[in-house]
Every structure is written in structure tokens, then in C-alpha cells.
Amino acid sequence: MTSTEELNCSREEQHLLRDDFTLFPGKCAAVRVTLYNDRVVVEKRRASDGQNGRVTPKADTVRLADVIGCECGRARSTYASNNSRLSLTSLTTKKPPNDTAAAFLCLHSYPYNKPAASGGFRRKRDVIFRVNKYDTHEQNLEIAQKWRLAILLILRRVTVENEEDISAARLPPARKLLVLVNPASGRRKGVQIFNKQVVPIFRDAELDYDLVVTNKQFQATEMAKTLDPNEWQGIVVVAGDGLVYEVLNGMMMHQDPSSVLKIPIGIIPAGSGNALFAAVMSKTGEQLAKLPPLHAAFLLCKGGHHPIDLVSITTPIRHIHSFLALTWGIIADIDIESERFRWMGKPRFTIGTIIRVLNLRRYHGALSYLPAENQEQYEHLRIPAAKKKVKKRLPRPHSTMDTTSEGLGIPKAHLPRFRSLNADLSKIEAGNGLAFSEEFIMEDDDVGSDDPEATESNPLQANGFIPGPNHPGSSNPSLEPSSQSSYLPPKVTDPLPEGWTTIEGDFVGILLTYMSHIAVDVEVWPRRKFDEGVISIQFMHFPQSRRNMVEFVNAIQTGRHLTLPFTRSLFVKAFRLVPLTKPGILTVDGEVIEYGPVQGEVLSNKPHIIIPTDQFQST
Ligand SMILES: Nc1ncnc2c1ncn2[C@@H]1O[C@H](COP(=O)(O)OP(=O)(O)OP(=O)(O)O)[C@@H](O)[C@H]1O
Predict the structure, then answer these.
(1) Distance separating alpha carbons of residues 481 and 128, to the nearest angstrom
(2) What is the Cα–Cα distance from 125 to 60, expressed in whole angstroms?
């Protein structure tokens, strides 16, 4: 062998297994199958080539990233039995050949039909090989089982470098999940979505789960309070963001929050507000608009987990935990006040937004915050994400969801559908719409990028840090933000320490977020990581011109609003908001909380979500 050949040999990628099978169903083509760490390559063999003959150069590749499970079994008996794990009748309508000796190996894969960005979506594709090398079924089954074991080891992220690594002793047991279905979420189709769309995928992945259909509010919180962290490898919420919020708050009431927070939470979207789902899909590059439960279930089967930010929120009467956002002013008003138009369905948000934009409210209040150190490291968050390649006429996620086939049941997102307002608001801007309440809308020339009356004070210095333990005023000691030292005084009425900045003035609205999305189609901070460790604040001073409001409403879906000169954004470790205008609405993760002073900070104790970390860039 020449040195060049030696070099080529050493460069050749090492395969783990290689064997000759036939494809099933179809013409039972003879194929040479090779398993690598990330794929299975299937090469057709020519009939004239014999056992050791050449293979045709054109190969089919099954990416293991698209595979969630692998099964093997005896062909004839499983064909006859409906109870068998591998029922070929469920895999194909084709009847297997009448050979009792053969074994089958089936890869459950869910590849995209075309890229997600071009409107593609995953659909099930079982790849079935018939193993018929030996005269006895036991020998053929042994080969199929070895392949299955190797593939399962890779799917469960066990390092497999060579054939010796393929051992049953190294295979981690299947994950056990607690599935919580809220039958009252969204269009009340949670149970149907789970049974029809999720169960078959979980079965393919051999996931073990216990199912609980909630029958009342806070049942999920009660369950999370006493979870055994060693019993579950994940909690799957088939609902909206509201049930995730309940689970997280229950976990924080657990006697050992740190251990229970390690149980990652997964979401199958079935509610009105599905921001967490949207963030997960967006970060992994998965299809968001088509077949949401299928894509969400696929990711849950792939496993993996990642921390997310959790914010402790204190009001005069309670202490809660939030994973999405706190809103005050225009967004909270549209979200909650449009409830009275719920009978309209999705257009309720359009109407609600028009009403609020036309009658812009002035909210007087004081926003105090402790800026995050090294502000420069968050600067990149202000840049809108690159435009996604989406076909021009591709329906917006929410509209697709609203009209999806039976059982999908993902209606409206929880916050206003800004994109759907484009047409209406442009008309208004051009003066064709409803009459404006001029009292509250100023012309552009009158409007600066900041409220001239707003006062900003920065008493400097110290780091604003209050050593913990903290929050003695909390009515429930188990809600304490674990052992973390707090930047906040115990009570929301206590004076703030030094080092804080306060902006007092008139606002159109203030949005405090710790997730990239606040609704399926509202990506407020497209570049935000799940565990950025800071609270992103965005606000607009009052007054604002009609043109500014239209521009803001149009821009917020894509993050372009971050660059608008009349909005301001901040990155903070802790905040206190004191609304002075009454009445008003405050929401936390889409739920209304008591109106009044509220403060919060990011916790170092972070919950986890189920997300295949190898499928997205966490930094
Ligand atoms: N069986 C039940 N009946 C009524 N409410 C329930 C039930 N189970 C859970 N809930 C409550 O439903 C609320 C909303 O849940 P979820 O977020 O899943 O749905 P949603 O449709 O997005 O919510 P929203 O009504 O806020 O739009 C949660 O606060 C939860 O406590």
C-alpha cells in the first residue's frame, strides 16, 4: 500500500456495522447497509453481483437525527399478532414473504419532505430491512437485534466508537415521562391531540409514560410540589403556557426545588398561548406552523435538555415564578380586554389592538432597575434576527393553526396577532379608518425618542446587592428563591438599595421578557438564548404618534421593533415597577395578577426544558 493509499484509508470514516439485507416492502431489493455514528447508508446491490459483489454508487441515507426509534422482530408471527410491539401491519399494508426464518429491522424515521424554511414538514417514514442470511430465525434475529442495539445506543447519546462498544449493558433505560394534559386548554382538544398525534410517536420511540388529565386548576401545581425527581426523566405538558407556569410554580414549592427543577419540561402545544413551544421550534429550526404536535412530539422523543431563565416575582400579597413575561400597558390591555370579544375568535386581537391604538392610554409609573453588568455582552440581542426564508404566501403560524385539520386544535396565540393587523393599521394610518382620539395621539414632530418629562435617577454605586436569605415577607416560605442571594428588598414596599436606576414618567407600555417569544407569532427577542440570565425590558414613553404605533405593531413580530428609535430597551438583573395610573392591568405569563407594585429578579436556580441540544446553538 502506498503512503497516499494509507492516508486515504486512515481518513476513511469508520463504520460501526455493515451487512447485506433486503428492503421491505417493495421489490425486496438487495441492499448493503452501513451504520455510521450519524446515519445509515443503504446501497443497492446488483443482482448479478452475488454476496460480495459491487454496489451501485447511488446510495440512500437515513439520518439518525431523523430517527426516533428502532424495532426488530419475527416477520410472520408479528404480522399475525396485533399485540406484538413490531406489528408489520401497522408499518405497511404489504404482506411479508412467507418465510418464517427471516427477521425484520425497522427504523422509525421522521424526515422533512423539504426544508422547514421552505414550508417543509416532517412525516413518518419507516425504513424496514429484512434479515434473511441464515436458515434459522434465531440467527437472523440476533443480527437484527445487534443493529437495533447499536442504533438505540446512538439515539440515547451513548458513545459508540466500534463494534465492541455495542453492548446491552451500556444501553440506558427508556425515559419515563409524566404527561399532563389540560382538557380545558385552547380548543379543548388536548386529550385528542395526545391520543391521536402524540401517542403513536411516543410508541415509535418506546417512551414510557404515565398520563394525567388534569381536572381542575392548580392540580399540576399540587403534583409538582411533591414530585420524586428520581422517578421521572421529563414532564410533558399537553396544554398552553398556563400549565407550564403551574408546573414551574409547583416545582418551586417543592421541598427540594434544585433537584426537582432538573426534571426537564416538554411542551405539546394545545393551548391559546404557546410561546414556549414557539421558542423551542424557532431555536431548533423546526417547522412551527404545520403539524405542531407532531414536530413537538418528535423533539421530545429526541430528548436532551437545556436550562431556561426563571424570574421570581413579588407583589404585596404573593410570590410567584415566571418563565415568559410581565406586561403592563398596551400589550396587557389588548390581551386581557379583548377577552370580551372571545366569541369572535382570532379577530378579537385585531379589534382589541385597533381600539387600544386609537385610544392610546397614558400610564404613569416608575420603573426601577438594576442594570446587568457588562451591558455590551447583550448588545447583539438588539439586532433583529436575519429574515427567515419563508415563502411569501405561506400562512402565518397562527392562521395555519387556526385552520389546521381536525385534532390540531391550536387556535389563537395568547397575545395580539400583530401581523394580521398590517392591513387594518395601514388603512388607519392613511386616514381611512376609524376616527382617532387625537387627545392621546401626537404627530411625529411632537414626539421625541424619550419622554421629556420622564425623570431618571441613578444614585450610583454599590452593586445594589442584598445578601440572602431573603423574602421573609413571603406567605409561603417554600416559595423562597432557594438559597440565592437576592438583589431585591424582601417587600415590594421597602426602599430600594443603592445602585438602582429609576425612570418615572408616562408610558405607553412596558414589556419585561425572559424568552425569545411571547406568543407563537410574536418573537420579541429573536436572538435571546433560553438562559441569558437577564431580564430584557422594552418600553415606549407616552405620547407616541400614530405612525410610530403602526410601525411598532408591524415590527414586533420579527424583532425589528428593537431598532425603532422611539422604543427603549434595557438588560437588567432585577426590577421594580410601580404603576401609578389606576386602574390598569398587569400580567405574568399571560395571567392577570393584582394591580400594584411588583418586583422581580432572575434566579440562578434554573428549570430545564426538553430540547435536543445537538440541534441548536445554545450560545
Ligand atoms: N380540567 C381543567 N379545567 C379547567 N381549567 C384547568 C383544568 N386543568 C388545568 N386548568 C387551568 O387552565 C389554565 C389555562 O391553561 P393552558 O395554558 O393550558 O391553556 P390556554 O388555553 O393557553 O389558557 P388561557 O385560558 O389562559 O388562554 C391553567 O391555569 C390551568 O390551571
Answers:
(1) 51
(2) 13
Atom of ligand 1 nearest to the CA of 213: 1
> C-alpha grid cell for residue 38?
450519524
Alpha helices of 27-74 — where are they, by DSSP H?
none
Largest CA distance in the chain: 89
> What is the pLDDT averaged over residues 589-605?
95
Residue 542: count of CB within 10 angstroms of its CB: 23
Q: Tell whether ligand 1 has an atom less than 6 A from the beta carbon of residue 250.
A: no
For the chain, the structural domain boundaries read: 14-170, 176-308+611-615, 311-398+414-602
Domain 176-308+611-615: which CATH number of 3.40.1620.10, 3.40.50.10330, 3.50.30.10, 3.40.190.10: 3.40.50.10330
What pLDDT was estimated at residue 435?
Answer: 30
Calpha distance 46→326 (Å, rounded): 64
Task: Give the whole-number percent of the chain exceeding pLDDT 70.
Answer: 74
Q: Is 241 a catalytic residue?
A: yes
Please state, in angstroms and rounded to a whole number, the distance separating the CA atoms of residues 609 and 277. Answer: 10
- Give the number of the atom of ligand 1 that is nearest the alpha carbon of residue 414: 27
Q: Complex ipTM, two decimals?
A: 0.96
Query: Domain 14-170 is of which CATH architecture?
Result: Roll (2.30)
Which residues, at least 6 apart from 190, have a Cβ–Cβ distance to it below 8 Å? Answer: 181, 182, 183, 184, 213, 238, 239, 270, 271, 409
Q: Is 241 in the pocket of ligand 1 (CB under 6 A)?
A: yes
